[in-house]
Structure formats: structure tokens, C-alpha cells
Amino acid sequence: MVGEGRMQRWIIHVDMDAFFAAVEQRDNPALVGKPVIVGGLGQRGVVSTASYEARRFGVHSAMPMTEARRLCPQGTYLAGNHQTYQQVSRQLQSILADYSPLIETLSLDEAFLDVSGMEWLFPDVVEIARQIKTRIAAELRLTASAGVAPNKFLAKLASDLQKPDGLVVIRPGEEAALLRRLPIERLWGVGSVTAQRLRQLGAATIGQLAELDPQLLEQHCGKGAYDFQRLARGWDDRPVVPGQPQKSIGREITYEQDLVEPQAIGAQLLYLAEKVGRRLRRHDCGGRTVTLKVRFASFRTVTRSKTLPEPTNLDDVLYEIAVHMYNKLAINEGIRLLGISVSQLATGSGQVSLFADQQEKKHSLYQVVDKLRDKFGDGIVTKGRLLHKEKLE
Ligand code: TTP
Ligand code: MG
Fold first, then answer.
1. Nearest to 85 by CA among 145, 16, 29
2. What residue ranges line ligand 1, CB within 6 angstroms?
3. Across the chain, what does the average pLDDT equal?
């Protein structure tokens, strides 16, 4: 709704189509029109993405690669070229930057642009989305889908409605009719658990959710339900926050064979902690929240997080916390994947603490270690613990 003297907000959401797979098809014309699957090629790999041709066979992101191969044996399976994807992503960002100073990058292939007020330059903001798509096609030789709407939620929803190569506009006043029939899973933030709960309350569609008794909703879904109901009505005033999506730094590994021995698991946690610590230090940042991810043989996946009073980027600290969280898990099966990530990032490694001196020393030690590793490879400095120390219960 346009208030008196208030400018109409216009947000564009741009999302590349089948991004990794589309880049592979572009760079190898023999793959055009064929099912292409990019992801981990080891026995335990998962699908990163699939071309639209492969999706027809039921292949989708995050599916175990073995299942993808079963569904689509004629597909071309690739490990992908992540440096190329990064480069294309930078090119995409430089195109977007020509249309608004307010850009929030969500991932390599996805961004919001706030183009409010640009009507002065373009007869219709939809023209901006059209131009962006045209330039992506001409300069990157790829397709993107775009959504144009008065807020982020609707813009993201719109970009997804006519994928691939879509352009959907939701003008103020059109949202209710559009949202009414969509399933609640389409709401931002509603996962399968929440969806199930909402269905039990009688809200299977976004329209039904919008009309649900707020008290009943809060009783069953907590205060967060209030936000869902706002979204269900098409209301969303979250701003486009310019900047990069580097919200966490982490590393995870899927193992060819399930890990069972505590010693092996401990060694892997230390390896991951060292990798993550090093990446944090390379970016000259630290993070306050440490997250451990464990996927079991049955594919059941759990995550545990701990938030520290101040940011860290020290391997030992990451390792200790990961082990601590690991030891608290009830484990009765083999482990398929381990991951450590750090979020709530802060730049600059200046860490003030009671142990400032000790931290300071560790920092300079790590700097030397990182330099040696850069020069001679990871094998050069391996702490004794990786090989011997047994810390897991
Ligand atoms: P998405 O935009 O979610 O997917 P997509 O671009 O491949 O397909 P769509 O046309 O539906 O937008 O993700 C962008 C890229 O991020 C994707 O090409 C590969 C990568 N990715 C993963 O590595 N793992 C995942 O689970 C997902 C969803 C994406
Ligand atoms: Mg995409």
C-alpha cells in the first residue's frame, strides 16, 4: 500500500536457472539439452544441482548421488568447476550493480535489488528486470529468473513461479489472489515440520493460514507464527541489506565409509577444525557461533551449536567445542558426514580476553603455521593430536 508521501517499494529477486549445471552446459555444447548432474561423485556424494532435463527424471539438489544415478542412468555426472561458478557469480554481481546500489547477495546465483524510486529512470521497474535478464543472456550466455514485487518475500516467490527463464511481476493489490491457493511450504521459513503442524490446524494453503485465529496459531506454533501470518498476507517490510552472504565459514566431509572408531572421528574433527580455523584466519575474521553437523549412516542429520562470548578463529578452540558437542550426542550408528562451521562472523582478529597474552602467542604461531602450509602443503605441519591424542568418549 502506498502511504501518503511514501514511495512505493519495489524489489527485484534474481536467481540463475540450474546454475552449476547451466554453466557446464554453456561451456560444453555437447551437454546442451541433456540431463546434467553436478555434485559429489564419490559413493557418498550428493547432488548440488541438476539441469532441468535431469529434473524430469526426479533428480534434485541434496539427493544422494546413488539415487540420482538410479533415476537417471543416462545423465552426465560432473564434479563441477567451482572457480568458474565464482567467476560467473562476480560477473552477475557486476551486471546487477548497474541497476541499484542496494543489492543483497544471498548466494552465488541469487540476489535482491531494491529499485524503489527508479521509476524516474525507467518507465516501469519491470523494465529493469527485463534488462537484467537480457544482459545475463547476452554477456554470460545463461538464463536467470526474476521476480518483481513490493517486498522481498513476494519477489522471491515470484522469481520461482515461472522458472526457468521466468519473469513474474506481483503488483500491489495482486498478492492476496496469488497467495490464496499456494501451499504453505511456499512461505519463507516454513519447513516440513512447521508445515505439518499448520496443516493439522487446518491451514494447508497460504490463504487459509492468513485467516487462521492468531491465538490458536500462537498456541500451537509459538510467537514465530505471527511472522508467518504477516507473510501469508503478503506483508514483509524487511529491508534489502547490501552486502555479501558470507554468513558462515565451514567445511564438511562425506566419508566413503562410515566412521565408527572414536579415534578416527576425533582425528576428523581436528582436521575440520584446522581447515575452518585456517579459512577464518585467511579472511582475517573470527566467529562466535560454532556449529557441528553430524550425518549418520541412516542419513539422519543433527546439528549442535554453541555461542561464545567473543569471536574465535583458533583451531584448538573450535576443536574443543566440536568434541564437547559431539560427546553429548547419543550415537549408536556409523557416521557418514562430519562438518564444522562458524557463524556470527566478525572481521579483524583482535580478540580481547583474559587470556589475551596466550591468544596473542597462539595467533603468531598460527600465522607461521599457515604460511608453512601455504608454501609446502597441508602435510607439513600436523599436530601430534591428529595422529595420537584420544579425546572422544
Ligand atoms: P539454487 O538457486 O537453489 O538452484 P539452481 O540455480 O541450481 O536451480 P534453480 O533453477 O531451481 O534456481 O542453487 C544455486 C546453486 O547452488 C546450484 O546450482 C548448486 C548450488 N547448490 C548446492 O550446491 N547444494 C544445494 O543443496 C543447492 C540447493 C544448491
Ligand atoms: Mg538458482
1. 16
2. 15-20, 48-49, 61-62, 109-110, 163-164
3. 87
